[in-house]
Amino acid sequence: MDYNRVYNFSAGPAIMPTPVLEEIANEVLNYRGSGMSVMEMSHRSEVFQTIIDEAEADLRELMNIPDNYKILFIQGGATLQFAMVPMNLMKNGVADYIVTGAWSKKAYLEAKKYGKVNLLATSQDKNYTYIPDCSDLPVDPNADYVYICENETIHGSTFQKLPNTKGKILVADQSSMFLSKPCNVSDYGLIFAGVQKNVGPAGLAIVILREDLIREDLDEKVPTYMRYDIHAKSGSLYNTPNCWSIYVCGKVFKHLKKSGGLSAMQKRNEEKAAILYDFLDSSKMFRGTVEKEYRSLMNVTFVTGDEELDAKVVAAAKAAGFDNLKGHRSVGGLRASIYNAMPKEGVEALVAFLEKFENEHKA
Ligand SMILES: *Cc1c(COP(=O)(O)O)cnc(C)c1O
Known about the structure:
Blueprint: E1 7-8, H1 18-27, H2 46-63, E2 69-75, H3 77-89, E3 94-99, H4 102-111, E4 116-122, E5 146-149, E6 151-152, E7 157-158, E8 170-173, E9 190-194, E10 204-210, H5 228-233, H6 243-258, H7 261-282, E11 287-288, E12 299-303, H8 307-319, E13 322-323, E14 334-337, H9 344-360
Parallel strand pairs: 1-13, 3-4, 3-5, 5-8, 8-9
Antiparallel strand pairs: 2-10, 6-7, 9-10, 11-12, 12-14
Helix pairs in contact: 1-6, 2-6, 3-4, 7-9
Family: Belongs to the class-V pyridoxal-phosphate-dependent aminotransferase family. SerC subfamily.
Domain Aminotransferase class V: 6-350
Pathway: Amino-acid biosynthesis; L-serine biosynthesis; L-serine from 3-phospho-D-glycerate: step 2/3
């Protein structure tokens, strides 16, 4: 069926798989004979318990999450995790942060409120266009964890190799790359992701953390909602969760399983990104902003080098059915977010459009 949808390159909230949207539409007046939609349903009902249990089981299967890791569904998006991570994991009151863009910078500044936070490495010197060498960093012997943002949504860079944490726990913000490729969960102590980039509706973060990191001996001023132990003990149902987002995320997990899982996603995502980056590398008008080996598969950032021309491209693209190509307000330029749900045809059509634009605007 043709819904007259545009190609949506938004960084988040972002494109969703059409079959998932269709399923939800079909269930919105009566979810499987319950006589109501999921948004009208008690979070203590058996029907909802099945929804959250299946979501968790499907995610565990998709990512191959070991049994000694908990999966938590927490409100407050990824931003709340910037505070929850230090509040819950700082035992010695020390943490090492690697700052590679706007999101790790925010997390770093937030963590500073809770302890001694070291700037272990940064790519700020070149406007976050690369990932620093993290093979032999001066990790603080007292650090409770080393923190990265594995894919910088705004700057368009990604870690190809995880840092050498010298035995310390690795904490990763995976918001804009979550489920884009296989992930070896046991390399991490904690992974979190705001779901509105690559999974579902905004307002939910998924936290995957190793059980032995869950502490009960926290400062008593830590708000109850911000304690991982509370969420873990209550199966993410301490209070009313974001039922709707959990339901939709569960649909996406099933959709990904049916589509071949995360290896298949990686293959598709690499193909899609190559189409766009190859064009940028051959273009005389556009160029990618991130050094080649650190380019993101998900957020492709590029510029013409002329702000006015950038704006012209964005406007012409929108008129042609390619929406949300404007770069983040803090960096300008252009950005095409090509998450799991963006079909290859969308990227091919965008490249055809950019090629045509370039030909028509030759100096
Ligand atoms: C979008 C984003 C965030 C913030 O997510 P919210 O859900 O808006 O709090 C944090 N980190 C990364 C990498 C992001 O892309």
